[in-house]
Design brief:
- It is a single chain.
- This protein is an all-alpha fold and 91 residues long.
- It has one domain (3-90).
- It is 90% helix and 0% strand.
- The relative contact order is 0.10.
């Protein structure tokens, strides 16, 4: 089994299944914290899919897109935690 076959037949189905499960958690999350964590995990799984696609197509430019997406996800998570901290101090 080559690396490309492993990526096609093992990694991509696992990432696809995890996207479905995390999206279900995003829709049914009881609180906003659960939804934000699920959204962060969706972006992380998307980064994994972009990375696999970059390996399969042998184009490194997709990794730049993945890094930018990771930075945006990180900043979003930091902004949300800052919001939660301010909300607890005021309320």
């Amino acid at each position: 089994m080559t690396l490309y076959n492993f990526l096609y037949y093992a990694i991509l189905p696992i990432l696809s299944l995890s996207i479905v499960l995390v999206f279900y958690r995003f829709l049914k999350g009881p609180g906003i914290v659960d939804r934000v964590i699920a959204l962060d995990l969706l972006i992380t799984i998307g980064i994994g899919i972009i990375s696999v696609y970059s390996i399969l197509t042998n184009q490194a430019t997709f990794l730049d897109i993945a890094m930018i997406l990771a930075l945006i996800a990180f900043l979003g998570t930091v902004a949300f935690s800052y919001y939660l901290e301010k909300r607890e101090k005021n309320g």
